[in-house]
From TrEMBL:
Keywords: Disulfide bond, Membrane, Signal, Transmembrane, Transmembrane helix
The keyword Nuclease is annotated on this UniProt entry: no
Protein name, per record: UPAR/Ly6 domain-containing protein
InterPro entries, per the entry: Snake_toxin-like_sf
Amino acid sequence: MQVSYILDDVGCLVSYNLMTLTGMMLSSIFFIAIFASASALECYVCTNQEHNKDKCLNTIKTCEQNEEMCLTEYKWGSTPYWDQGAAKQFYVSKRCATKKQCTDLRSRYMPFCTYIWYEDWKCSECCQGDRCNYYVILGASSTKSSITMLAATVGAALMLWRFYV
């Protein structure tokens, strides 16, 4: 059995058994591994659900190490082939994703993210943080568009009112 000597916090010479040090290091590595896996990102997951409830709010996945974002895709369209004139329906999908997947999907969906009720559209949102994709947020762009449309409607109504008065 080999004994080593080191200085403790107060500066006293203390002997340590190398077996004890090895055991302490292994314990530390074990606790770090447990902590690292416990701190992995968790996201809500579901695929093409009709609403943001039930499965989309009850199914949680621990993401892979390289997946640092929670991704939500929401679509408005007809089933199953997104035909013009068919009944429209809301679809939600949630999953873990990488930053690159989020960026790629967002730029691919951007031209189709219109929120116009009579057209088929697709949008996506990404967030960071455990279970951050609980809510489906229709993005700041939809709020901005709604305010712009409201202002345009009020402006047009005022112009018509002045014309007829």
